[in-house]
Amino acid sequence: MIAPQTLLKKHFGYEKFRPQQEEIIEQVLSGADALVLMPTGGGKSLCFQIPALMLDGTAIVISPLISLMKDQVDALRSNGISAAFYNSSQNFEEQQYILDACHRGEIKLLYISPEKLLSDIEIITKACKPSLFAIDEAHCVSAWGHDFRPEYTKLGFLRDRFPQIPFMALTATADKHTRRDIIKQLKLKNPQTFLSSFDRKNLSLEVKIGIKPKEKIKEIIDFIEDRDGQSGIIYCLSRKKCEETFEALKNEGINAMFYHAGMSSEARSSVQERFINDDLQVICATIAFGMGIDKSNVRWVIHFNLPKNIEGYYQEIGRAGRDGLPSETILYYNYADLQILNKFAGEGAMAEVNLEKLKRIQQYAEADSCRRKILLNYFSENPDKDCGNCDVCKNPRQHFDGTIIVQKALSAIVRTGEKESGSMIIDVLRGSKRQEIIAEGYDKIKTHGAGAEIPALDWQRYLMQMLNLGIIEMAYDENFALKVTPFGKEILYNKRKIDLTVLQVFQASDKKEKTKKTSTFSADEELFNHLRKIRRDFAVEENVPAYVIFSDATLDEMAKQKPMTESDLLLISGVGEHKLLKYGQAFLNAIIDFSPASNKKSKSDTYLETFNLYQKNIPIPEIAKQRNLAETTIYSHIAQLYLSGKIESLKSFVNEDEIVQVKEALDIVGESKALKPIYEQLKEAIPYHKIRMALAVLEKRTH
Ligand code: ADP
Ligand code: ZN
Prior knowledge:
seven-stranded parallel beta sheet; Rossmann fold; Arc Repressor Mutant, subunit A; six-stranded parallel beta sheet; binds zinc ion
């Protein structure tokens, strides 16, 4: 049997396992059950994919995310692993085709949705011999969780039916309640629980408090423009806000789109797909976006408003940087958010829990110690060091004696009868003479105008600190009236002093950064962008998301290391044997071409060179070798030479019968640059190079 480590390099191109992966794989190989808790992007998939390669039979992977299955299967195939999916998006014949392949022992991993597994269990188990069961997104079994799927609760029977086969449940939701539920409902047998750290060190954390909506938009536009072409997600609270934000970005020429539950499901999947394929740079979305997407190169996530709770927030920022490269997250937080969110949270049966959760995220947003520590504490982890990668660590907060400021605010609250909202209190403090104030007689109270020297926005931020410190409370069911707590009373009556945090000035520090960032791209970045283009061409041709070809992390390493030979390229993380064969030459050529030493050839030169060798009747593989180019590249030259009239006929490559078959397939899958759909439509019976040639012939005929 080949060792796990060897398979890791051979198929996935990785040098070493991440923490826990190896132990989990061993647990499964020993035939025992496992519960795997790892954050998004932690590398859960390898934990069942590698055992699947080592065990006899087919690993059954249960996942509720039908939209992800095709990409996952494509990614495995691109690594030379035989995988398939089986779900309701396929017709009967396609399903039969897959079951037959399972029966012949040709499929190592079969992805399947829970409902399909339940309905077709008999035919599935007749067709394949399960080697292991991996239940992905296992938290869906729990009615307590945020993503309950009733079919999941019916999966428990599998454990009884297959007593000898290892089961593993995987999830990125770690709370104890959910964990117990998973074990109980899936009937896992003495499972070992593997709990990885939920720390995502590559995500920077930043919170910006009290910035006006208009400035927010301006800042975000600057932010995006500074990050040439980088993918990002902006989360907004409402559909309307999504669309507005999108409009603002579009007007600046940013390639963005919005995404929310009010759109048709087709429109939504099209947006997702374009985002995954790097066709759209920015998505303005409600929280509905992200569950069904696997895009490893999201470089930043912005929250336009305070999220409802820490679980959701952590999951949303977790969509950035799955490839492990540094990624940025920013959360904007305003007084108005608090009002809206308190209202939401205060409604419904779970009001108490929801309000408590809101308080916790508020505390996070107002933190004046390391933010990551607060997040990890929330998930019951206790790191002993500050992270150095959050805005508080980078810019330690200062405190001052805020007793007088707090007393002024408290006094205004008490003297207006604890029935006014924050905005009225601020107007009183600032000495406004607006009609309502006069009508209520608030201009006569002692604190009227007592805080005129402090701008209104700053007052908002002080009130937020006071809420967070438990000095005041907001009564969401009384028009957000502010009330003084017993702790607040102690301050008001001079029984104790209180420290406040010096307000951060965000704009000034941003301008500084901006002037730094205007430098042009380094050579490595240029090469990286060039490699991305090559990746894109392959992705279009094969009709798969770009990351299936190579991740950004892999391209980044190529751009820095600049491998010039196949063996050097194989050392790059993410380059396995299969991908080396398929894409190696194209990327090596690009890197070599890019090096300053190589004199660049123009396109027509390179065609001419191929043409000269072709004229000498040298076979294509030989031409590719001599020219140090991929065979696919040579074939595309030949097709081009044919279209331009230099080569008269392609008869030696493709016969009329094959051309007719390609034409028929093309009619079914529709016009497109991609060869893969045609290849698949033809049940892989005609190789790619012939399809390419047939398309050239067909193209010429129509002109
Ligand atoms: P999860 O399912 O936990 O969200 P994935 O299994 O999709 O995460 O893995 C996230 C990324 O990390 C993928 O691009 C994967 O190829 C990569 N990865 C996983 N294990 C390793 C490893 N040992 N070394 C390098 N990269 C890895
Ligand atoms: Zn920190």
